[in-house]
Write a structure and sequence with these properties.
The chain is α+β, with helices and mostly antiparallel strands. It is built from 18 helices and 13 strands.
Length: 469
């Protein structure tokens, strides 16, 4: 089948206007055989330069590609046969060495979600589930690709030979389909706002790489108009526990054997000090400065009611899965969120948390590597262990209606409760932001609906300022 033509006609530049009559873009259109191609530009000079290049190529008798609509001499003819799957693997391999495990996983998820848009029907097409599993677990994982089991390897070979060429993304319709697939769930509905934004960003980055490699003349994802779903990231007030509920949940955790007692301090750090779970997992005894014990009237050592300690966080240890780390450890130690490598964060340790930590250290000590939290048998504390304990604590400590609600649905919601408590206690936002590891802008946006009572105080101040008028 021929893939080039000399039958080319370039049309005049078309001004695109909005309802108010203002020019919004300049569109160049041209035809190769029966196919009409269009490209829009923000500035007239850009459109004129592109149109002039097309006209020059046509007048010089150059062949135009029927796949891209552009002159073969523009340097992509030799790369037009690069399949989407082959390109995606090339992009993954390029990013793998320097990317954190979580970022590697995010890239694989975005590419896996987008791939169906580039898979043609027929020709022995594998089952959709087979494609998803094979690409996510093996194809888009540099470390594991060569060890894919036979069934997955068969699917990946088919994708390499049959997925649509990357050059097809010069067609806005194909690019739009890729973006829609990449930002959608399996049922076709749009993914959660945060996920959709992240996947769109990752696909745009992949297309930048395609331009760099010469597979595409421009980035088709960035050219598309795309309106992100509104997402303020505000904390749902319904998820925030009060102090009585938090204490009941900690008590319910403690009653669970055998892991419950050693998890009380883990959840308490999230509730009283706003630690992220991955920060609590990496906490070491040396990171905690507890106040000295005083003496009661009998001379026995006792904890002061107002004894505050201090916690210094250095690194986090999030769970990413063994498949995504270089050494096969399911956890990956990395810098604190929103901080450069080597930067620390200091958090106050409230008297209630001080007592819990002192009890934990006396009861369990610290692990072989100095971390406070480890499994019953001395190894890594599995994420499934504390998640399972939290689910049971909610069932035991909350009413049926509360357990069915968003109230403390995740351990992370304890952090939201802590930050909300600090804000509602009147601690200044910059101080809370420093303790929580946020910027002030993000803090106030995320926790806007959790600050209660401030409106009435503001009204009283306005009334006082206005006097009797």
């Amino acid at each position: 089948m021929k893939n080039t033509t000399y039958n080319v006609r370039v049309f005049a530049i078309e001004e695109r206007r909005n309802k108010a009559g203002a020019v919004t873009s300049y569109r160049v259109a041209w035809r190769t055989d029966a196919e009409v191609w269009k490209r829009s530009f923000k500035r007239s000079a850009q459109a004129d330069a592109f149109r002039s290049s097309l006209v020059t190529a046509a007048r010089q008798g150059e062949a135009f590609s029927l796949s891209t609509g552009e002159p073969v001499s523009w340097g992509r003819a030799a790369k037009e046969d690069v399949s989407w799957y082959a390109f995606a693997c090339e992009y993954v391999d390029m990013k793998w060495k320097t990317a954190a495990g979580k970022y590697r996983q995010d890239i694989a998820r975005a590419l896996t979600a987008a791939t169906p848009a580039m898979v043609p029907d027929g020709r022995g097409k594998p089952d959709d589930k087979e494609i998803r599993v094979s690409t996510y677990r093996w194809g888009f994982n540099t470390k594991n690709r060569e060890t894919a089991p036979d069934d997955a390897a068969r699917v990946l070979r088919w994708l390499n030979e049959n997925t649509t060429p990357v050059s097809a993304l010069t067609d806005a319709t194909v690019a739009r389909a890729l973006l829609i697939a990449g930002t959608s769930r399996l049922d076709g509905k749009r993914a959660a706002a945060t996920t959709a934004r992240r996947h769109r960003m990752l696909l745009a980055n992949a297309m930048d790489f395609a331009v760099e490699k010469g597979y595409l003349p421009h980035n088709p994802i960035r050219d598309l108009k795309w309106i992100a779903a509104p997402d303020t990231n505000e904390v749902d007030r319904r998820s925030v526990v009060n102090h009585a509920q938090a204490r009941a949940l900690l008590d319910a955790v403690k009653k669970q054997e055998p892991s419950g007692p050693r998890l009380v301090a883990f959840f308490a750090l999230i509730y009283y000090a706003a630690l992220r779970p991955e920060e609590a997992l990496n906490l070491r005894k040396a990171d905690i400065a507890l106040p000295a014990l005083g003496a009661d009237e009998t001379g026995e050592e006792s904890e002061s009611a107002d004894a505050w300690g201090e916690i210094v966080l250095h690194k986090a240890r999030p769970y990413v899965g063994a498949a995504w780390t270089d050494d096969g450890d399911p956890y990956e130690e990395r810098a604190l969120k929103h901080r450069a490598d080597g930067q620390s964060r200091t958090v106050p340790c409230a008297p209630a948390l001080t007592r819990i930590l002192r009890w934990h250290l006396a009861e369990f000590g610290d692990g072989p590597d100095g971390r406070l939290f480890y499994g019953v048998r001395g190894g890594e504390l599995p994420a499934i262990t504390y998640r399972r304990a939290w689910r049971k604590a909610r069932t035991d400590a909350l009413t049926e209606a509360e357990a069915a609600s968003p109230l403390a649905r995740r351990p992370y919601d304890l952090r939201h409760a802590c930050v909300s408590t600090w804000l509602n206690a009147g601690v200044q936002a910059p101080q809370v932001a420093e303790w929580a590891g946020h910027s002030v802008e993000v803090l106030l946006r995320v926790y806007a609906k959790c600050i209660v009572g401030q409106d009435e105080a503001a009204k009283r101040r306005i009334t006082d300022a206005l006097g009797d008028d």
